[in-house]
Design a protein that fits this description.
single chain; 298 residues; mainly beta; Ubiquitin-like (UB roll); Resuscitation-promoting factor rpfb fold; 4 domains; 6-stranded mixed beta barrel; 4-stranded antiparallel sheet; 20 strands; 48% strand
């Protein structure tokens, strides 16, 4: 009977002898290098009194155990393993945590910090946790953006001998084009770091604007040209005002010369050229040649 009494008493005390632990690190092995503190207290103090008497604050993440249980009034040893302090910079936000997780990856799970498929973390998930460890999370996001862009029409000038020089005529108005471009934009922590063109299509085809530019000089007359002794590169004409510049073209060889009207005349010819001007389009011995006289437009 006495034997059974002590057996019952022993079995009743056994649960109180087991360590009373905090739940902060119950799912991990305690990490190497964590700070460990031990305190001894007499039997007259309760668990609450012991914790209030400590010089430093106990955090929920700290590992705490009593052995034996203070309720047995046998005296107790308090063991505290301090959680590591970890700083996480997540994008533009910085947060400080306490943890007894062994690795960075387990720490992220513990704190329910989720990483996107393209997010980056430094140091790596396999890195052991240490006190004052700094963790940098770069949030990476890739999106497609669509931009429609107008392509200005090209203007093309074409010479037209049927139009007088100095005049222009629009042959075709043309049309601006339009393209659609798809870019893959990569942002890190909300800041764009790259933009890559991945697709392009033409919505409206560009059409050239065509302008005809006149090359024809206004015709003054067709007639005979002679030469006489006059100032260089000048001519005489019966009706054109002095100072007028004309182009004289030899109809037999298409050679041309520009001269300034500086005199009145001649008699028996349409225009009288200075000697040097005549020589540019015909030999002097020709005397008289058939020419076309046009108003010169630079």
């Amino acid at each position: 009977m006495k034997k059974n009494f002590f057996l019952i008493l022993f079995l009743g005390i056994i649960p109180f002898l087991f360590v009373c632990k905090s739940s902060a690190a119950s799912s991990y092995r305690l990490p190497v290098g964590a700070s460990k503190e031990e305190y001894y207290f007499p039997s007259i103090m309760s668990k609450e009194e012991i914790l209030r008497s400590l010089p430093q604050k106990i955090y929920p993440e700290d590992y705490v155990s009593f052995f034996p249980d203070p309720r047995l009034n046998l005296g107790t040893k308090l063991t505290i393993i301090r959680a590591f302090l970890v700083e996480v910079k997540d994008g533009a936000k910085t947060t400080r945590y306490r943890t007894l997780a062994p690795t960075v990856g387990q720490f992220l799970v513990e704190k329910e910090i989720e990483l996107g498929e393209k997010d980056r973390i430094q140091p790596s998930s396999e890195t052991p946790i240490s006190n004052n460890l700094q963790i940098k999370i770069t949030r990476v996001k890739e999106t497609e953006i669509i931009i429609e862009k107008t392509i200005p029409k090209e203007t093309v000038l074409k010479e037209d001998s049927s139009l007088e020089k100095g005049t222009e005529k629009v042959l075709e108005e043309g049309r601006d084009g339009k393209i659609r471009q798809v870019f893959l934009v990569r942002r890190e922590d909300g800041i764009e770091v790259s933009r890559k063109l991945i697709r392009q299509e033409t919505i409206v085809q560009t059409q050239k604007r065509i302008i005809l530019k006149g090359t024809k000089l206004p015709l003054i007359a067709i007639g005979t040209a002679t030469w006489y002794s006059a100032p260089p590169m000048t001519a005489a004409h019966k009706s054109l005002p002095k100072g007028t510049i004309v182009q004289v073209t030899n109809l037999s060889n298409n050679k041309s010369v520009q001269v300034k009207i500086a005199d009145w005349g001649p008699v028996g010819a349409e225009i009288d050229l200075s000697k040097d001007a005549f020589e540019k389009i015909a030999p002097l011995e020709s005397g008289r040649i058939r020419v076309k006289i046009e108003k010169w437009i630079p």
